[in-house]
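sry for the spam today, last one i promise. struct tokens for design, 254 residues
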């Protein structure tokens, strides 16, 4: 029997310390674990491969069994046998995708590992983080409490008022205009997210006569329009419970 028929092709797939898939030649010892990712984030795992005749002769590929298309990219080190597979998920549908990692060598040996790539739909705040921080994860500069642009508004407020968290600005969109229908009457113009209920955001619209005592408006705001993400709204300045006319307006978050 020729030596090339005796050599082993080994692939080790690491998704977590307790989940390891090992393949020798074409035998699958562990069918592979599950990889979870938010849609729009980059999926990745680290692995190792080894071939008795040298790693340079190993060909690596990944197939999305669900769609029948190649998926992801490899970065490999033939000396150490380390490899990293990464996959952009922005164009992939949400749901489960079965992925096969295939290694083959010049002698015709094949090793295969299958795993499930589970893609979860991104919420609006996760999409917002992806736009401005490159990931859906609330960590580091992307924490809700963080203020990366140093303007005094944290990321939660920047998201709620439709601002760029990397550009310093405290303009949350509040305006005061004259009521076109009633002489001497003022109206407040402000904005909120169109999906504020689904996003779990509570806005408080408050009026004051002296900037000390504030009272929450009791009238439902009128929607003037929206751009698909943010709504523009208006409220008339009410009379305060003291009988004094209100003179100041603010929109705040809890």
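last one done:
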């Amino acid at each position: 029997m020729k030596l090339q028929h005796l050599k082993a092709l080994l692939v080790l797939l690491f998704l977590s310390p307790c989940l390891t898939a090992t393949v020798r030649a074409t035998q699958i010892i562990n069918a592979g674990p599950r990889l979870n990712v938010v849609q729009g984030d980059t999926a990745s795992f680290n692995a190792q491969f080894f071939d008795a005749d040298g790693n340079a002769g190993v060909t690596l590929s990944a197939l999305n069994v669900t769609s029948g298309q190649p998926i992801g990219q490899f970065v490999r080190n033939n000396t150490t046998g380390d490899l990293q597979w990464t996959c952009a998920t922005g164009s992939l549908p949400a749901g489960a995708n079965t992925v096969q990692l295939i290694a083959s060598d010049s002698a015709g040996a094949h090793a295969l590992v299958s795993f499930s790539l589970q893609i979860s739909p991104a919420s609006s705040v996760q999409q917002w983080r992806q736009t401005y921080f490159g990931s859906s994860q609330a960590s580091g500069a992307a924490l809700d409490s963080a203020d990366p642009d140093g303007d005094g508004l944290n990321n939660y407020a920047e998201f709620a008022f439709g601002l760029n968290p990397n550009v310093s600005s405290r303009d949350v969109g509040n305006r005061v205009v004259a009521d076109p229908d009633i002489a001497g009457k003022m109206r407040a113009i402000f904005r909120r997210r169109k999906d504020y209920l689904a996003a779990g955001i509570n806005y408080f619209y408050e009026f004051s006569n002296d900037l000390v005592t504030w009272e929450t408006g009791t009238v439902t705001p009128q929607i003037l329009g929206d751009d698909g993400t943010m709504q523009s709204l208006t409220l008339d300045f009410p009379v305060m419970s003291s009988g004094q006319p209100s003179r100041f307006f603010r929109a705040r978050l809890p």
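Residues 151 and 168 are 5 Å apart (CA to CA). ok im logging off now
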